[in-house]
């Protein structure tokens, strides 16, 4: 595991706490970091629109031609979705449409709203995927309102 993965994932989890609460969607934070440790984009669920996912919001803020993306990492508190009803493209598809080669997340998406396999799809497409599961309880705590 790269040296800063835990710290960046903590920061993404912190962003998830800024999400307006929803009874129909997870609260998620996402940060894209270049190889030198500079933040390229930040996003959180429902940031600009009630249907926004965190990764979607962060990726929308990127310049797709930025050469730093080829070595960047997407840190997201929840596994990128691979199924969704509110928009035509999933966060997994949006990530695969970028040059970002690496994704780090804390909690696998539970089958509460959809049965997702984003991590597997990203790996199958050749992306490096790191799960830091010991931080998952923090993400569950942010989403406790959905898990009652």
From TrEMBL:
MF terms (GO), sorted A to Z:
catalytic activity
Protein species of origin:
Murinocardiopsis flavida
Q: Which PROSITE patterns match?
A: CYT_DCMP_DEAMINASES_2, PROKAR_LIPOPROTEIN
- The annotated regions of Basic and acidic residues compositional bias extend over 45-65
A Pfam family recorded for this sequence:
dCMP_cyt_deam_1
Organism lineage: Bacteria, Bacillati, Actinomycetota, Actinomycetes, Streptosporangiales
Start and end residues of each stretch annotated as Disordered: 43-65
Write the protein's name: Diaminohydroxyphosphoribosylaminopyrimidine deaminase
The CMP/dCMP-type deaminase domain, residue ranges: 3-129
């Amino acid at each position: 595991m790269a040296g800063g993965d835990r710290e960046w994932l903590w920061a993404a989890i912190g962003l998830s706490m800024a999400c307006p609460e929803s009874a129909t969607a997870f609260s998620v934070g996402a940060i894209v970091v270049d190889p030198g440790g500079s933040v390229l984009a930040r996003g959180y669920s429902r940031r600009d629109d009630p249907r926004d996912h965190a990764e979607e919001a962060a990726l929308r803020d990127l310049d797709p031609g930025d050469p730093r993306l080829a070595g960047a990492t997407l840190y997201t508190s929840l596994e990128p979705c691979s199924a969704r009803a509110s928009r035509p493209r999933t966060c997994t598809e949006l990530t695969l449409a970028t040059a970002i080669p690496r994704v780090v997340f804390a909690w696998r998406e539970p089958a509460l709203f959809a049965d997702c396999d984003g991590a597997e799809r990203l790996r199958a497409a050749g992306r490096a995927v790191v799960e830091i599961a010991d931080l998952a309880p923090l993400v569950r705590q942010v989403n406790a309102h959905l898990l009652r």
